[in-house]
Amino acid sequence: MRLSTVILPIHRWSEGQKLWQRAEELGFHAAYTYDHLAWRTFRDGPWFGALPTLAAAATATERLRLGTLVTSPNFRHPVTLAKELITLDDVSGGRLTLGIGAGGNGFDATTLRRRDEEPWTPRERADHFDEFVPLLDRLLREPSVTYEGTFYSADEARNIPGCVQRPRLPFAVAATGPRGMKLAARYGQAWVTTGDPKLYETGTPAQSVEAIRGQLTKLDTACESIGRDATELDKILLTGFTPDRPLQSFDAFVDFAGTHFALGFTEIVIHLPIPDSDFAADEKVFERIATEGLTQLGR
Question: How far apart are CA 80 and CA 217, in angstroms?
Fold first, then answer.
């Protein structure tokens, strides 16, 4: 059982550095950040780049794993992304995990598009993701890659010396649909979910658990279809998007974590509290969860 956190890239580094170091001091397994151009209600405030933030965090910490939740094809190209990831993996001494997903309809989907150009439909996002992940996998494993596809191409793209982690840094694939599940099964070292978004405002915790159990069944099926044992994949739950309120109290977290670890999750990720936002929480409760939550589950 692992407990990790998300630190949104909303702080100038003079303050942000302390937050990443504090995450390490509290004993979190990993600290992730969101890889967006802008995000929801934070759009009109500070929002820094994910990959430079992780590079800075790598030099400010020693043991903490670092990663994105999640990077998407909405504004990334596999060739340039691979070069940056190899650099980050090197700077961090092999502590990087790439959380990766198909992306959504937010600002990332429109910022780089002309006004007369429609954002990708869900099917088009899945089409891009289907090509993005296998190409990125090759770019991170092979010293030279030439590829010509429907959406992406590479002409002798060189990535020497490659990743510190071999054969490449781990992918944590966010997916709920059948095509994404197949990518997670084939290329993922972990699978990521936020639960069922349709249940966030009107569902119940019990309904959420059943929906997530259904997602896990789909992941099992996807793994079986390629002859892979689903237990080989870590299962990561990014909290904050289900009807539960696990940071409401220490006991609420213990109950929530116990339920979801019993489902088969190996890692739960909680957001660093942000006052006056959807991620507002009591700092003392958060720190107690970080330092005592898993110990309580082990009793």
Answer: 35
